[in-house]
Amino acid sequence: MSDMELIGSRGCGSAIVEMALEQANMPYRLTDLPYLKPGPGRDRLLSLNTAGQVPTLVLPDGQVMTESAAIMLHLNDIAPAAGLIPPKGQERARCWNLLIRLVSSIYPTFTYSDIPENWTTAGPPAQRLRQTVRQRREQLWREFESQTGEPHVLGRRYSVLDLYVAVMTHWYPGRAWFEAECPRIHAAALRAAESPVVAGVLARHFDPPLE
């Protein structure tokens, strides 16, 4: 049986899946490419994932997974000892709720703010869209903060949510903003980075930091 293949890019959400694969001690190979740059790498990515996004995970049987939350649930199924998702019960329900909030509410804001010209006219309209979406993102993070525990996102239990905040706090509005406005999220991200696995992936993706 061949290993899984993770297609990702530096500084992107593929870092979260990379952490999970390392934490689960799953054999995989990493294909790292600038996913928006035209060329053979992007052509292959588009052949596997028509959205042209990372992470894209190719399973040993050739099946392709393209959504990070789905990938996390799959990894938990095949490597439950990694502790990515809590056992059945209220804690698992809360983990799933917060996970879906991250990927369905907060994560998509980057689609519209990173290159707003894809969605509106260049110039002032694009600038307004970026500003409005970023303000909405900050509001969503504050709501997430109200549901974040200590010392981890779920409270006493470490989970996949800590991998998400470890990466996403490096993105706009940046770590200084989280420290000031969302201290529990910031603290959970720092706590996650105490793991050698998490620290190693962060160093590869955000050295120097990307904000």
Automatic annotation (TrEMBL):
Domain GST N-terminal, by residue range, is: 1-83
Q: What does the record give under GO molecular function?
A: glutathione transferase activity
**EC assignment:** 2.5.1.18
Q: Which SUPFAM superfamilies match?
A: GST C-terminal domain-like, Thioredoxin-like
At the top level, the lineage of the source is Bacteria
Q: What class of enzyme is it?
A: transferase
For this UniProt record, the keywords arranged alphabetically read as follows: Transferase
Q: Which PANTHER family does this entry report, sorted A to Z?
A: GLUTATHIONE S-TRANSFERASE GSTA, GLUTATHIONE S-TRANSFERASE-RELATED
Q: What is this protein called?
A: Glutathione S-transferase
The organism's lineage? Answer: Bacteria, Pseudomonadati, Pseudomonadota, Betaproteobacteria, Burkholderiales
